[in-house]
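Fill in residues.
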């Protein structure tokens, strides 16, 4: 049973959800005529299972917070015309059945990273599809949560806050942002190129979503190259993209287990190119 993948220390509410999960799974298997397969990497906020059914290969995602999952489903439906997210096949309270992406390899694990031109096309199509008025939050509100989490993880975000205060005071036309577009949330598809999963939608500057691709560069030279080439290919303001990257770099550094990466990200965040 995939509940063993859930992290300990979930709290009483989530523990009750774990206890009820077998019955919920059994009901969904019957209702949607599913054959369950292997589990994917699940954590404290969801359980994800491969499956097959009348609609073909699929992914079943269940979460203890039905409102957060419904928000994710709404974002996926907004982005759907782009072809750059999995299709929503069916929903129930606290559960969603999604199209399986094949091969579905995480882009961060590919032997060769996408080029800036390829990533610009992916990003542009994703951002062109959604309506920013549908976003459940503004980018500034999402940033407050990100910075608070970063501080708890030891990040110094004082400079980041100053940078983003200036950016938010000088806004550009907003788009519907994915909100968490690191390359661990991007899948490789034989049919559609790159496909994004797990959106945390918000409305704001397209450079925010672009910053993660830049910060995936191994060192400062690679990050500068990605910044310049992605800005050129995507038609983004390179100075704004640079500012967003510098603001978000300390958050990436706080999450990285690799000392050399931490050094490079922090130096980039200080503008030491």
């Amino acid at each position: 049973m995939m509940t063993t993948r859930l992290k300990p220390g979930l709290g009483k509410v989530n523990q009750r959800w774990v206890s009820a999960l077998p019955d919920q799974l059994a009901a969904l298997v019957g209702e949607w005529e599913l054959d369950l397969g292997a589990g994917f990497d699940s954590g404290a906020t969801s359980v994800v299972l491969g499956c097959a059914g009348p609609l073909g290969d699929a992914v079943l995602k269940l979460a203890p917070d039905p409102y957060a999952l419904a928000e994710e489903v709404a974002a996926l439906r907004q982005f759907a015309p782009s072809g750059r997210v999995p299709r929503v096949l069916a929903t129930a309270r606290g559960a969603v059945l999604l199209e399986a992406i094949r091969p579905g390899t995480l882009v961060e694990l590919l032997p060769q990273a996408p080029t800036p031109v390829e990533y610009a096309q992916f990003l542009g199509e994703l951002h062109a599809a959604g309506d920013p008025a549908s976003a459940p939050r503004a980018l500034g509100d999402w940033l407050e949560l990100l910075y608070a989490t970063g501080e708890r993880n030891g990040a110094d975000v004082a400079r980041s806050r100053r940078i983003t205060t200036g950016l938010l005071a000088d806004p550009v036309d907003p788009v519907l942002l994915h909100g968490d577009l690191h390359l661990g949330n991007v899948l490789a598809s034989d049919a559609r190129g790159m496909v994004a999963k797990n959106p945390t939608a918000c409305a704001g500057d397209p450079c925010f979503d672009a910053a993660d691709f830049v910060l995936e560069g191994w060192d400062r030279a690679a990050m500068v190259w990605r910044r310049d080439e992605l800005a050129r290919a995507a038609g983004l303001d390179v100075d704004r993209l640079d500012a967003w990257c510098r603001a978000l770099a300390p958050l990436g550094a706080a999450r990285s287990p690799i000392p050399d990466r931490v050094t490079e990200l922090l130096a980039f965040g200080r503008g030491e190119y």
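The first strand starts at residue 35 and ends at 39.
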